[in-house]
Amino acid sequence: MKLWNALRGWAAANAAALRLCFHMTVAGLLAYVLAELLALPRAYWAVFSAIIIVQASVGGSVRATIDRVIGTIGGAVAGGAVGYLLPHDSALSRGVALVIALVPLTLVAALRPNYRIAPVTAVIVLLTFDAQLGPLGSAFYRILEIALGCFVGLVVSLVLLPARAHGLVISTAASMLTQLADLLGDWLAVLAGSLGRTRITQLQDNIRVGMARLEIVAGEARQERRAHLTQFDPDPLVLTIFRLRNDVVMIGRAAAEPLPGPIVGHLRQPLEQVSQAAQRFLRTSAGALRERKIPPALDAVEQALAKFIATIEELRREGATQGLSADDIGRLYALEFAFEQQRQNFVDFRDRVTECAGAHSEA
To answer: Domain for residue 8, yes or no?
Structure first.
């Protein structure tokens, strides 16, 4: 029973990987069967293409299909034309043919990395063509085999347990909110002198990786939208997440060192209230985003920020900040500015979560 529960837990934690494994296996097997039924001379190119095309999301598969088909056609046409027009019955002549075919194709691949398959296909056509088919016949069958594999991979991604990129955008964004909440809480605790910087570096690394992942899945979601597979526009949500990350970066710069002793006692409680309210908003918003629900209100955040700013103004009126260094005074102003920016971005983000909830209810 324990083993079964452990397996279920592992499967739940790795559901995306298992789905991708299933898609790749089915696509490869189906491509092989179809290529054999069609008596294609090199069925393995269909299998290769089907496996390569299958991505973690439908949008990724659509983009990979377009890039591979365009690159394959360009490479096969170039390789077939050069092979047909130039004799290459010796090592020297084959080398000359390769240079003529590869120079323009490798330039295209260097400028547009998505089309790196083009020079590879040209090489395959030139060096491995069937003598009975000739270079043009070999080029035709390479296009057919690779196009078949791409078609199979795309259909499998669309039909069998499809994973839409917009869902990955939302889940990744929600994960980023949780990590930003952790980092914000740690920075404000450092500022108040109540916590060290033990896990801050690790959190920053995790967020950096997560933001890169968010940009990737957002690109796949844009491809789904261009293919009319969804109406979801990832850009407003993704841009707001990036702005929230920048807010935490600004706060982190101001919190590089604890506040000086003369004022830290006055600001520790207001900072803790800001930290708790902001973290609660981010974590609750992450849950609302995942569940496509209305986000929480901002009342607690605004009240905590108002108290923090009022406390600083009172310290200034009392002259408590006069003995501070220019750097410390600058950090206080930077912190106020960063908190105000964060409040405005919280408002924008709340609108984005509301939009996601509305789009889900309409769907």
So the answer is: no
